[in-house]
């Protein structure tokens, strides 16, 4: 077990955790009321993500907003069919596949670090392929999400919207986290490739 393999394992766990946090967060895009104009027409806080959404109406002051408190009270969409955009449905499926593949890669990383007898080149090679596949699924999912801005749900809460145009809504921290985590995840397949090349091949044994 080398320092590089330990670093690869740690980074794989961290980035997978970040991607998992992002998918359950509703704060992908949000509409924050103007603090200088919290009127009846501009008094609602709205946030939405792949699986959850938040709507807080009739704010009398911008100080009433508390994202971390509201996070616990945000709702899941009623069902998969209740997700308001076809593009978001595809995005959920692709993102979910990506996270599952990352979990498989973590299992392989655990095997490579904890079981010396199976710390072979093939483990790193397979893990690298799994991780690059996961990154591809995640990237497609993240690019597909803004295509759903044309849905009635987004238009209702964000004003005049279109594909890649969120109207009065703006990007929030969870979507940024998903993008950054996916970008940094690209380092992991590179490290897995390095480990595959530098790890000696297992010697054949005769029984």
TrEMBL record:
Is Hydrolase set as a keyword in this record? no
Gene3D superfamilies, from UniProt?
A: 1.20.140.150
Q: What membrane topology term does the record carry? A: Multi-pass membrane protein
Query: Which residues does UniProt assign to the signal peptide?
Result: 1-20
Membrane-spanning segments: 86-111, 123-145, 173-192
Keyword hit for Transmembrane helix: yes
What's the protein name? Uncharacterized protein
Species = Nematostella vectensis
């Amino acid at each position: 077990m080398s320092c590089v393999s330990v670093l690869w394992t740690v980074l794989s766990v961290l980035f997978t955790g970040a991607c998992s946090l992002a998918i359950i967060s509703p704060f992908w895009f949000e509409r924050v009321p103007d603090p200088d104009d919290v009127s009846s027409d501009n008094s609602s806080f709205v946030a939405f993500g792949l699986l959850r959404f938040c709507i807080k109406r009739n704010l009398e002051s911008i100080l009433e907003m508390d994202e971390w408190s509201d996070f616990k009270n945000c709702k899941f969409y009623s069902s998969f069919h209740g997700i308001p955009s076809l593009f978001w449905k595809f995005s959920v499926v692709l993102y979910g596949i990506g996270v599952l593949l990352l979990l498989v890669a973590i299992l392989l990383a655990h095997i490579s670090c904890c079981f010396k007898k199976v710390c072979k080149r093939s483990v790193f090679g397979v893990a690298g392929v799994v991780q690059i596949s996961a990154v591809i699924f995640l990237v497609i999912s993240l690019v597909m999400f803004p295509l759903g801005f044309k849905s009635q749900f987004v238009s209702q809460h964000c004003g005049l919207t279109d594909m890649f145009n969120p109207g009065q809504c703006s990007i929030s921290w969870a979507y940024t986290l998903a993008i950054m985590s996916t970008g940094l995840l690209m380092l992991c397949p590179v490290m897995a490739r390095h480990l595959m090349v530098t790890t000696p091949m297992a010697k054949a044994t005769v029984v």
